[in-house]
Write a structure and sequence with these properties.
About 80% of the residues lie in helices and about 0% in strands. The chain is mainly α and about 130 residues long. It contains five helices and no strands. Helix 1 crosses helix 2, helix 1 packs across helix 5 and helix 2 runs antiparallel to helix 5.
């Protein structure tokens, strides 16, 4: 693991910790017994899991070209309104240009979100037993 990856992991972990705290503030519960505490921790871990994991999953889907048709449609719409006489590119040309520009997806938030989801499910398991 190089220094750039390590910094990226640290930043996303700090963001997950911040989301953990914010998720805990939004779902205040009575934490008198062990089961209630585990339920509270499960809710706290679920917030960063959904946000960071969802961001990583959307990034993965976009990296495989699933949103290219929407991008092409909006670019054609903007081209129609703002560049009246200019001929737009075909969808094939647009897709090939986008594929050359792609550089992967956000792996780190997907991994951190998956870890938070696993911790949330583990706390939920302890809460229900």
């Amino acid at each position: 693991m190089n220094k750039k990856n390590l910094i990226s992991y640290i930043v996303w972990i700090l963001l997950a910790a911040l989301l953990f705290v914010l998720g805990g503030r939004s779902s205040r519960q009575e934490t008198g017994n062990f089961h209630a505490l585990m339920g509270y921790l499960s809710d706290c871990f679920l917030f960063p899991a959904v946000l960071e994991g969802g961001l990583g999953a959307l990034s993965w889907v976009a990296a495989h070209g699933s949103f290219d048709m929407l991008g092409y449609a909006f670019s054609r719409l903007a081209n129609t309104f703002f560049h009246f006489r200019q001929e737009g590119e075909t969808f094939y040309d647009y897709k090939m240009r986008k594929q050359e520009q792609r550089d992967g997806f956000l792996r780190v938030p997907l991994v951190i979100g998956g870890i938070c989801l696993a911790l949330s499910l583990l706390c939920l398991l302890f809460c229900l037993t």
